Amino acid sequence: MFSIPELIITAFVILFFGILIRFVFLVKNNVLYLNIITLLTGLFCVVAGMMLLFTYSAKLRAGLEKQKWPSVQGEILRTEIAGKRAFRPKIEYQYRIYGLEYKGTSDYRVAGFGGRINRLDAAEKLTKSFPPGKKIRVYYNPVDVEESLLRSGVSYTIYLAATSGAILYFGGLILLIFSLIPKKEFNND
Hints:
This protein is 52% helix and 19% strand. It has helices at 4-28, 31-66, 116-128, 156-180; strands at 71-82, 88-97, 100-105, 135-140, 148-149.
């Protein structure tokens, strides 16, 4: 499966080449191909942009809601690195609410950029920053106290995906408008 950055980059490459091809056919004065390429690229970008916007606007709202969760002090129980290619720290912790003890597992992710060794190094550094016994802040869902997080807030990847969706959507709309404008408006004869 593709990661979010790979999908966003692919969509922007298609948008870029759609615009580039549009100007190539504009210079060659090939109206039929110009409108077809512009229309198809515009439709792709609108659909891809809407999918990103709908998916990540919901995740953005959920992340902003989690910022309001209360927090308590917790303690790290165990840390390890999970995964064979996409390494991520697995951090187990415990916390107490109303005298009852709960356990949770981290939601940490490391950047997916760079080679396998870079991802492993990033996961190891993060894991070492949470040694067993370390006191930490745990954010918990006030409605379901068994649901908890070590980080409260919204990841930058969610902002990136939502913004990219908006750019793709509006870029696609512009291409659709250009595909509907008669060709003679571009000629200065």
